[in-house]
Design brief:
By secondary structure, this protein is of the alpha+beta class. The chain has two helices and five strands.
């Protein structure tokens, strides 16, 4: 299996409005380190998994719509608990749409909340 990864970060504000989340039910901020991994069994006709520049640009574009935003005010997430797991799947879906024509394999999005805690979502593309 071949893998290409890119790393970025984003800062968001949100509240997880359910008593289950204790203090995180109140408005708070999170700074995520975002790792995105493209994996496949076969290289494409250019002998790469995906162009690293294109991967970086695609991740930047998706994260730009989230970075420095209060997700509670974003209509895309109305009625949703924007947990780390939820956000990993959302980012995966956005990237899968962008890369479906040029990448066929597994895409994994990892959101690191800190150096000791993270969540991820992985699934097929193309």
């Amino acid at each position: 299996m071949y893998t290409v990864g890119v790393r970025r970060h984003m800062m968001i504000a949100h509240s997880l409005q359910d008593p289950y989340f204790g203090p995180a039910a109140a408005l708070h901020g999170a700074t995520y380190v975002v790792d995105v991994e493209f994996s496949t069994e076969q290289l494409n006709t250019k002998a790469v998994v995906v162009d690293i520049g294109a991967a970086s640009e695609g991740v930047d574009q998706v994260l730009k719509s989230l970075d420095f935003r209060n997700l509670d005010d974003d209509p895309r997430f109305a009625g949703s608990l924007t947990t780390t797991e939820f956000l990993a799947k959302y980012i995966h879906g956005e990237l899968a749409q962008r890369f479906a024509a040029e990448f066929h394999g597994e895409l994994k999005v990892i959101l690191h909340e800190s150096h000791v805690a993270w969540a991820s979502y992985a699934g097929p593309v193309g």
